[in-house]
Records
---
Amino acid sequence: MIPARKLRLVASAVTLGVVTACGIYVNVKRAHLAPELRSRSLLVDALESGVETIRRAARDGSIQPTGIASDAPGMLHERLAADGIHVVEDRILGARRTLEITLADAARARFELEEQANGLRFVTAKATRASLEIELRALLDGVR
Amino acid sequence: MAMTLWRVFRREGLAALLVALSSAAFFAFAVHAVVGAAGVSASLRHRLEITRGKYIVEDVVRRALTRLEELRAGARLVVAEGQLSSFPQREAWVELRTMGGHRALVCGLNRGEPSRGGRTLIYRSKATRGLLPPEFSWALGELEPAESKAGLVFEARDGEVRSPVARKLEAMPFRAEKSWSDVDFSIHRDCWDAREGQTHTLAMRNFRPADELALQNLATPTGLENFELGNLHGSRVVAAFRGERDLVVRVKGHLWLGRPDRKLIVGTGGRSLLILVDGNVRIRGSVEMLSENDRLFLVAGRPGYGAFRDRDGDGVRDPSEILLAPHVHAPVLGPVEGGGLIYVGDAASRPHIDAGLLASQDVIVAHAGAEIEGAVLCRSLLRLGTSPGALVIRGRRRTGASSIPPRGFPVVPGTEELERVQPPELWQVRNHRYEPLESSAPIAGRSSEAFD
């Protein structure tokens, strides 16, 4: 009986230890997961805000009617910076312009502006974070 | 012996109880963590779906507005979601509805099969009175294009000269009666009998009865009454409208604007002024807007009115001048002088007109030509004389940050409100009326038919 009792006590202690370890593990994971999800939500906020900023710039002529590349140098960058979006690279290739950006929490993302042959212009915000791809695509000029 | 067993049981039972309690607490904790994370994740997905839907709706509404007359007639337009959607061919619908006393464009995006518990995301956007068709963003649109475009110049806003590109109107806008009855106020002879009792009195005072202009300038009196826009102030004629929103006015007669020796200055408080004129519009002199955000649009010819091709521009039909039908299969109605013609300038002056023009019949430009800063939409564009002066149609100048036009020619009044579809508002129908849902969650399990 005594060996069995010892065995049960040892088993109980081991179980308790395993449960406690698992609890600590889940808690640590949750502690990491919650901010990650919150930051993803903030990332969507930032991308949406950036899309609106670019569309405002297009509306008041900062992005000129002809093409997508002829705004006054830096104007669009400054506007985005006011929203906490910093442009680190601005590439123009044909009818496509790509703005590589960093956000306040150092997430990397980009805005793509493109003009189609029919004159429609689009803005696409793309970001990848922890294997999650977020993409928002909208008309650059809104409803006309 | 019994005491020993009790002690053993108590000791081992406590240990087992401790293990069981801690295990239960752990599992509860784990479930909470997983459910909480899943909830946040679902909320994020929902948020992305709503935001993407908003952009899709903007595109759907943009395309639906090309069929504005059908919307006005109460039709539910079914439109493909388009290239902003992951499923471009999936159908969305758009309606023009009255909600809470205000007109709204309502757009539904179907998500999932209705028979399998799919839901419809309902978005709504303000539809302001005076909504104009997208053709007003063109330079020149003709229903029956005139052949000669010699002397016609198109200029972009930046001064770049482009080759004349006239477009063909598939249908004449503003042919629905409802477009002419849903106005802020009407101008007619009776207004002056009881003017003090009218609302919009200040705005109405920008018009005055002007039958003497017809008697002075035309060979015969007109069948419809005549009104002039603006009042004399020093060397100028001024019309000042101060609206909180875009304004739509109907003139039940002919409208005269500008004078050969005085320009007309129109202020609209940064908004758009749309004037629907039952009869003809005669622009005799320059028309300028007070500020760069002010906009004026003139539409001539109420539904059902016909006219004649006034090749000599005298306002009287000669036997050789053909009748122009009123765009419907009905006898030509209207006054003998016709309705739906816009006369621009005269032989001596070359006016500068800062307004968009839509004539259900012809736009007739006098010998000296004109400069028009806005769209010209008509059945045909006629220019008088054997060697008419240049007609320049110029894209409207860029406006301030508070206003729109992003590119090209002038934009639609009301787009300030329409341009950005409002943040998603989800609605349900009770007692045949739309009511906002308190929850911002999607309406799961509802098909679009649930909103009829």
---
Amino acid sequence: MSLLSLDAPGKEVLLMGNEAMARGAIEAGVRVAAAYPGNPSSEIIGSLADVAADLGIYVEWSVNEKVALEVAAAAAASGLNALVAMKQNGLNVAADFLLNLNLTGILGGLVLVVCDDPSGISSTNEQDTRIYAKLADLPLFEPGTFDEAKDMIKEAFALSRKIGTVCILRSVTRISHARGNVTLGPIPREKIKPFFDPNVRLMALPGAPSHVLVHQRLKQAQEMFESSRFNVYQGPETPELLLITCGAGYLFSQEAISLLGLANRVGLLKIGTTWPLPERMILGLLAKTSRALFVEEVDPVLENNIKELYADNNSRLPRIEFLGKKSGHVPDVGELSPGLVIQVLGKIMEAPWRPGNEERSRLAADTLQRFAPQRSLAFCAGCPHRASFWAIKNALALDGRHGILFGDIGCYSLAVLPTGFSQSKTLHAMGSGMGMASGFGVLDRLGSEQPSLAVCGDSTFYHAVIPALINGVHHSSNFLLIVLDNSATAMTGFQPHPGSPVNAAGLPAKPLLIEDICQSLGVKTVIHDPFDVSGTSLVLWELLQQKGPRVLILRQQCALVRGKKEGQRYRVSVDSRKCMGEECGCSRLCTRVFRCPGLRWNASTGKAEVDEAICTGCGVCADICPAGAIQKERQST
Amino acid sequence: MKDPYNVVITGVGGQGNVLASLLVGAVLVDKGYKVTIGETYGASQRGGSVMSHVRISRARQYGPLIPPGLADLVIALEPAEAARVLAQYGSEETVCVVNTRPVHPVDVISGNMEYPSLDALFQRIERLSQTAYMVGATEKALELGNPILSNIILIGAVCGLGLFPINTDDIEKAVRTYLSPDRVEMNRMAFLAGKQLAAGLNHCQN
């Protein structure tokens, strides 16, 4: 039984921030939820999908973020409460629709959750969503705790319905992917019937006549935010320093003040409604201090907006020294940590914390250097991508014309690194690999002789590759698109996609096969199993010798799914009599070059061996060993 | 338990440290504690250094990351990760429980880097902590038929050492709620095996 649908008001349970938001939506009576998966946002819709049937909610993994927002907007236009979730990069995809939806407003309730990834822990960038709220003139919430994550979603739905616009909730990794106590509230049982009133028009018209209304709605939101319970001040009446924070910065700052013993000197202002700002509340606190410090992730958004507010009101306010990213006191990139906040605050307030034990610091530094070897990003043991990129490497080397492989977003992004033999040469946005390959593939008309290749995953294919593929076909570009089809949105937790036979709720759905789509465009399409490494290299080489648009689908299930479903395909071992080690002349091909984590180099015997706690039994390394020392034995499953 | 009691569960991606922290946290929330868990993991599903910070308090909800030097207990599914975490989050007061089986990083597999000698590594772990308990959790898990059970075996050992107020019934209930009823028996077995390992442990105290 899922805690998300537990009807036990008042009970405290442990929920991930993303689950807390999903629970908030349930308590707000959400009826439709849509998303494209992306960390750190994936569990919001994922956990709703688990209880969708029980609670009568329609949940879908949409083809991309823009469509997810459109699906949710249709529900909201029909009077329902709808939730849409995405990661920060996804908002760029949805932004075109969002920046028109803000003008038309909505009828029901629509909450857009965007989970930012400060430090880009599982992202290519660390863009700050809050700038979109200002750009689109939309109300913005930022939770600082897990309970708040739930309650803010409810509040955002209430506000959305009241003033008739989309509300944005911005989370960050340390809220979304952390867990904490959440007190459950009641689950509403009444279900309204969706109805789109035919007398209503939701139109963004040329000349922007609705822009005035957008500003009026924002003004209404601001008035309500002035007394919001999510904006809290804790501290002395006239603090020496006013620490202004939001999001994950809140709990870090609270602990830093307490550990440094500064509760009588530093005031803590936590803002939960970060756009539009609760101006009167902030001005009231600014009047009582002479120094303010901003602690926020990632961009100086609060910092800039509050400084703007101060400038507008400076004739009535004391002289204030503002400290933050602009002053150089807080790093202007990357995520916050308690250690960082303690260090920043301690320095500003001249309040030392735990005077360092020099011997311990030396020992720690020595330990990190000598006893904690770095763990570079790598494909999992048994990952089909390792085999695919091995074949691509061989085929490109054999071809010899310096073919360029344009990379894309997914686990296989790692192919820019040694784990994918550094084969991908670019990495930008979803679908950009195919778009660039389409462009590179027409440069032969200008004298280029290099083959153009793109790689993408199955989910990415549907998300954003299809328009780029059509572009390439229409313009007779010369390219080879390699689709690494591992039958799942693997990087974000195996969500189904339009090629899957099931939907988010696990019910049957119509699978749209990649080969059918490519063939319908008249593109030559070949399917191969990347675990047949030499066969794949040959097919790739042959395709490279041809002209026009070509697609190769390398189909093999993700090792993590395969392992769970069918266990180990082979029992793999190294025959130590056949492995000649350094004497072989292969230069340790299996470990030095192929470098699957399931293999180990035993320095004392000078031979390779298999780590049975890690090997997933794909058997590919057996085909790579030139001495035939790696043995694979079929397992009955 | 000290308040807050700060625990780091660390290991290599794929060893199940997230699940271990979830089960521990769920049991303690049920017992009336405020628990916050922060996860740190990279972009890869497998093979990277991973940590769960578990913060336990009767009084309030702490932030999802432990300040440097304030870990009270380090539970490590991999010995080099134990050293890494002790260097950053440990102090002379820190107790640690360590699975002795190394997982070689790809840079070691490829020969670009060396894995420290196990004897020296264990000595360093002992020097960095107040008390270090070494547990052969992976070997026990392979004996039980699945290396993924190492995490629950290690949690069993921690509970057997009296470092968490958690018993077999608690773990069973948490597995039933958060995983699935058909995985209860396997995990109960692993938890008990860990407790038994704890009973026979010699530890090194500084």
